């Protein structure tokens, strides 16, 4: 029995197969421990994973061009992908781990053919299946379905178990049982009542977010539903592709935990690699077998004289996203898994601390940050607590892929109020820190916007305005130096933010902005509302107080 996942891992590790950073991370960091049976939660069964591969190579034939009529022969990278998806299971539930695939490859690398096989396979494999091929327009959605149809026409074995009709709508169906495989387009009104077992979504970069959301929700009653998204980078920005690409990148970086997604992103690691043929395989794993190298070579040569065509090649052949990376810091800079235990934190009871907060009323997050000072180890510890109202949590759970409920369950986020955050909860939090831990807030800096009510409450507890409660003007003049110090502390790991996943995620959402004098401050990347930065903003406000006398707090 072949272990294609291990074989692919071996070739990556030996350098025989060149892959980009994201594919390397997926196979070596996420999949390898499972394949070696070293993962506590998941296990790998080659035989279960090989079932799809055998189906593809035994019963399905090519449907296009010079390949027409030839039996499908999957390449190693394809076999490794599908064996992992169908062969990795949860030890406790015995259910399949991966329920969603995000597959980014350069054009003409076999994505559609694989998923045409998948449509037929899942129609037969799942009792009472509802399989859908979806895209922005019906013609695009039909492309994968029509390849599936052609595979049936070319296979006596498939014709015994599958039939199809094209009127009134394209449908493949099982001759025994009640499974169907249909085409959908962007007419969202027709999606009501779906009970999707498998959705194949083509050209994700052009797809409306609403279509994905409805298909995703329609899988909720299925134990092991599967959504397969296939795409190149595309030209449409700020849509479903960008959201999913960012989300999958954060899964690979460890910023977001989501075990259900299989994020396989074949792309160049830099634009300069376009001019190094040895690197083309990073975005084109099927090169020389599925995709013709000579044609790609011709495309690259034409780029020099045709700027418009150059952009097409960069995006469609090499998956270079046409948006400048504006992130403040790379992941390896702000990632810090260090955390003090409760016992270790108790040494800072009854000590002077600094506070800072960033408030909201409706539709956002409130964050309160406390800085503790470990002078012996030259460390600063940031304890950041978050609050959201019930309405915010309900809306985000329905529309966002961020694991809000998991963060609530783990105590990183607290629910406060129904439609707006109750600031009594923040006051009570500060009071509880003094009573239970003896934390004495020498100063609390805050964004003055909408803060007056909380400031008045804190003043009633004895924290004086002007000496303890100090507004931090949200501008370059006030925040530039604290932000530079914060960056330095993140780089050298002086700042320990307790490996708080909410804070870590928010650090990844920060964009740097500068004034003409070279001063800088933070903002949400691309000004997207979903990219929250409230925790780092609260930490930065606290750093305003820290920077007033950093030697006192660190050496005092």
Description:
The chain is α/β, with parallel strands linked by helices. It has an 8-stranded mixed β-sheet with strand order 5-6-7-4-8-9-3-10, with helices on both faces. Strands 11, 12, 13, 14, 15, 16 and 17 form a 7-stranded mixed β-sheet that branches. Strands 1-2 form a two-stranded antiparallel ribbon. The model has no long low-confidence stretch (mean pLDDT 90). It has helices at 4-14, 21-35, 46-59, 76-87, 111-125, 138-153, 156-161, 209-217, 240-253, 293-303, 307-317, 331-334, 342-345, 390-399, 404-409, 424-437, 452-460, 476-491, 501-507, 534-548, 550-555, and strands at 42-44, 88-90, 100-104, 130-134, 162-165, 171-174, 180-184, 198-202, 226-231, 261-265, 352-358, 366-374, 379-388, 413-415, 440-446, 469-471, 495-496, 510-514, 520-524. Helix 1 (4-14) crosses helix 2, helix 1 crosses helix 4 (76-87) and helix 18 packs across helix 20. The protein folds into 2 domains: 4-317, Rossmann fold (3-Layer(aba) Sandwich); 331-555, Nucleotidyltransferase, domain 5 (2-Layer Sandwich). It is built from 21 helices and 19 strands.
Short note summarizing the structure:
Helix content is 40%, strand content 17%.
What is the topological layout?
Blueprint (H helix, E strand, L loop, with lengths): L3 H11 L6 H15 L6 E3 L1 H14 L16 H12 E3 L9 E5 L6 H15 L4 E5 L3 H16 L2 H6 E4 L5 E4 L5 E5 L13 E5 L6 H9 L8 E6 L8 H14 L7 E5 L27 H11 L3 H11 L13 H4 L7 H4 L6 E7 L7 E9 L4 E10 L1 H10 L4 H6 L3 E3 L8 H14 L2 E7 L5 H9 L8 E3 L4 H16 L3 E2 L4 H7 L2 E5 L5 E5 L9 H15 L1 H6 L1
Parallel strand pairs: 3-9, 3-10, 4-7, 4-8, 8-9, 11-15, 13-14, 13-17, 15-16
Antiparallel strand pairs: 1-2, 5-6, 6-7, 11-12, 12-13, 18-19
Helix pairs in contact: 1-2, 1-4, 3-4, 5-6, 10-11, 18-20
């Amino acid at each position: 029995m072949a272990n294609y996942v291990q074989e692919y891992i071996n070739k990556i590790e030996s350098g025989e197969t060149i892959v980009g950073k994201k594919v390397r991370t997926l196979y070596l960091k996420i999949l390898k421990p499972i394949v070696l049976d070293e993962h506590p939660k998941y296990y790998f069964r080659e035989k279960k994973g090989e079932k799809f591969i055998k189906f593809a190579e035994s019963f399905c034939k090519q449907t296009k061009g010079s390949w027409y009529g030839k039996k499908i022969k999957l390449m190693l990278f394809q076999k490794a992908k599908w064996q992992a998806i169908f062969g990795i299971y949860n030890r406790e539930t015995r259910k399949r781990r991966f329920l969603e695939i995000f597959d980014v490859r350069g054009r003409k690398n076999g994505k559609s053919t694989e998923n045409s096989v998948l449509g037929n396979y899942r129609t037969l494999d799942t009792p009472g299946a509802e399989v859908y091929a979806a895209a922005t327009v019906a013609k695009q959605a039909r492309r994968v379905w029509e390849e599936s149809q052609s595979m049936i026409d070319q296979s006596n074995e498939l014709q015994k178990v599958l039939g199809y009709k094209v009127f009134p709508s394209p449908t493949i169906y099982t001759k025994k049982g009640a499974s169907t495989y249909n085409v959908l387009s962007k007419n969202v009104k027709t999606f009501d009542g779906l009970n999707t077992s498998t959705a194949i979504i083509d050209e994700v970069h052009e797809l409306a977010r609403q279509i994905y959301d409805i298909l995703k929700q329609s899988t909720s009653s299925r134990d092991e539903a599967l959504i397969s998204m296939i795409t190149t980078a595309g030209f449409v920005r700020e849509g479903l592709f960008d959201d999913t690409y960012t989300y999958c990148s954060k899964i690979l970086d460890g910023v977001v935990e989501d075990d259900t997604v299989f994020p396989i992103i074949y792309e160049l690691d830099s634009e300069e690699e376009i001019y190094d043929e040895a690197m083309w395989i990073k975005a084109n794993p099927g090169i020389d077998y599925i995709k013709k190298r000579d044609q790609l070579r011709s495309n690259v040569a034409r780029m020099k004289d045709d700027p418009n065509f150059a952009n097409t090649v960069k995006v469609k052949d090499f998956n270079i996203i046409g948006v400048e990376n504006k992130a403040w810091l790379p992941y390896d800079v702000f990632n810090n898994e260090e955390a003090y235990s409760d016992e270790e934190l108790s040494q800072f009871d009854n000590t002077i601390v600094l506070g800072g907060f960033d408030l909201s009323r409706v539709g956002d997050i409130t964050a309160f940050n406390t800085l503790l000072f470990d002078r012996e180890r030259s460390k600063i510890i940031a304890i950041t607590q978050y609050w959201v109202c019930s309405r915010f949590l309900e809306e985000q759970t329905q529309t966002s892929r961020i694991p809000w409920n998991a963060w609530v369950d783990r105590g990183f986020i607290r629910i406060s109020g129904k439609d707006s955050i109750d600031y009594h909860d923040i006051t009570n939090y500060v009071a509880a820190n003094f009573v239970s831990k003896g934390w004495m807030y020498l100063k609390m800096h805050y964004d003055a916007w909408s803060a007056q009510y909380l400031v008045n409450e804190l003043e009633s507890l004895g924290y004086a305005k002007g000496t303890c409660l100090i507004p931090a003007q949200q501008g370059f003049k006030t925040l530039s130096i604290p932000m530079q110090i914060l960056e330095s502390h993140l780089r050298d790991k002086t700042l320990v933010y307790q490996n708080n996943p909410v804070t870590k995620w928010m650090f990844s959402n920060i964009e740097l902005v500068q004034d003409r004098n070279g001063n800088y401050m933070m903002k949400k990347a691309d000004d997207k509302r979903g990219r929250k930065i409230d925790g780092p903003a609260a930490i930065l406000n606290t750093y305003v107080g820290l920077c007033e006398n950093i030697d006192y707090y660190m050496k005092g």
